[in-house]
Specification:
Helices cover about 85% and strands about 0% of the residues. The chain is built from 5 helices and no strands. The chain has helices at about 5-170, 175-195, 205-235, 245-260, 265-285. About 10% of the residues are buried. One of its GO terms (cellular component) is cytoplasm.
Length: about 280
C-alpha cells in the first residue's frame, strides 16, 4: 500500500487499520465469550427446565397425595363422627340402664325388707303353731291315757253286762233274738272303739276322743236299756217283743268313724291352708 499509494497516506491509515483490527479482535473475543456464555446459559436453561419438570411432577404428586390425604381425613372424620354418635347412643343407653338398675335395686331392697318382715311374721306364726302343736301333743297324750283307762273300765263294764245278759237271753226263748242282734251290734261297736287299727287311734285328734267318749256313753245307755227290757220281758212273757233295730248303732259308729277321719288332721290342714294363703299373697305382691 505504501508503494501503491504513498507513505503519508499509509501513515494516516495505519492507526485506523490497527484500530479496526483491534476492534475486530476484541469483537471476536467478545463473540467467543458470548458464545461460551450462551452455552453456559443453555446448559443452565436445560438444568432449570429439567428442574422445573421435576418440581412440576413433584408438585403433581404432592397435590395427588394431598387429595388422597384429604379423602382419607374426610373418611376418618366421617367414621369418627359415626363412632361418636354410636358412643353417645351407647352412653345414653347405659345411663338409662343405670337408672333402671338403680330403680330395680331400690325395688329389690324394698321387696327384701318386705320379705324380711313377712319372714319374721311367719317365723313368729311358726313358733306359735309349734307351741300349740306341742301343747296339742301333750293334751293328746293325756287324753289317750285317760281314754285308755276309761275304755278299759268301760270294757270291764260291758263284759259284766254281757255276762249278766247271757243267762237272761238263754231263758227268754224266741224273744231273745232281737237282744242277741243288739248284743252283736254293741260288740261290733266296742270292737270298732277298742281296735288299734280303727279310726279312733292317736292320729284322730281331740274331736275323735270326744266322739269315742260319746260313743261309750251311748253304748252304756244301750246296755242299760237292754237289761231293763230283758228284765221286763222276763217278768211279763205274754207281751209282744218290741222290735230292736241294731242298724242305727252301727250307722252311728260308722258316721262317727267318718267324722273322726275327717277331723283327724285339722292342725296340718290349717298349716297347709295358711301356707297356700301366704304363697298366694306372695304371688300377688
Amino acid at each position: 500500500m505504501i508503494q501503491r499509494y504513498d507513505e503519508d497516506v499509509v501513515k494516516t491509515l495505519m492507526p485506523l487499520l490497527v484500530n479496526v483490527l483491534e476492534c475486530l479482535d476484541a469483537a471476536y473475543q467478545s463473540n467467543q465469550e458470548q458464545d461460551v456464555e450462551l452455552e453456559l446459559l443453555r446448559e443452565d436453561n436445560e438444568q432449570l427446565v429439567t428442574q422445573y419438570e421435576r418440581e412440576k411432577s413433584a408438585r403433581k404428586q404432592a397435590e395427588q397425595k394431598l387429595l388422597e390425604t384429604e379423602d382419607l381425613a374426610e373418611a376418618e372424620n366421617k367414621d369418627l363422627a359415626s363412632r361418636l354418635e354410636s358412643l353417645e347412643s351407647i352412653v345414653r343407653m347405659l345411663e338409662l340402664k343405670h337408672k333402671n338398675s338403680l330403680e330395680h335395686a331400690s325395688r329389690l331392697e324394698e321387696r327384701e325388707s318386705e320379705l324380711k318382715r313377712e319372714y319374721s311374721k311367719l317365723h313368729e306364726r311358726y313358733t306359735e303353731l309349734f307351741k300349740t302343736h306341742v301343747d296339742y301333743m301333750e293334751r293328746t297324750k293325756l287324753l289317750m291315757g285317760s281314754t285308755h283307762s276309761q275304755m278299759s273300765s268301760t270294757s270291764d263294764r260291758l263284759d259284766v253286762n254281757r255276762a249278766r245278759l247271757h243267762p237272761m237271753s238263754r231263758s227268754s226263748g224266741p224273744v231273745s233274738y232281737g237282744f242277741a242282734s243288739l248284743e252283736n251290734s254293741t260288740m261290733l261297736d266296742t270292737e270298732t272303739i277298742c281296735s288299734p287299727n280303727g279310726s279312733s287311734g292317736s292320729d284322730s285328734g281331740p274331736l275323735s276322743f270326744q266322739n269315742e267318749l260319746d260313743n261309750i256313753q251311748t253304748l252304756e245307755k244301750a246296755a242299760e236299756t237292754d237289761s231293763l227290757q230283758q228284765m221286763n220281758q222276763a217278768t211279763s212273757p205274754q207281751s209282744e217283743p218290741s222290735p230292736v233295730h241294731p242298724a242305727p248303732s252301727s250307722s252311728m259308729g260308722r258316721s262317727m268313724t267318718k267324722k273322726e277321719q275327717r277331723s283327724g288332721n285339722t292342725l296340718y290342714q290349717e298349716l297347709s291352708f295358711q301356707d297356700n294363703e301366704e304363697s298366694e299373697e306372695n304371688e300377688v305382691t
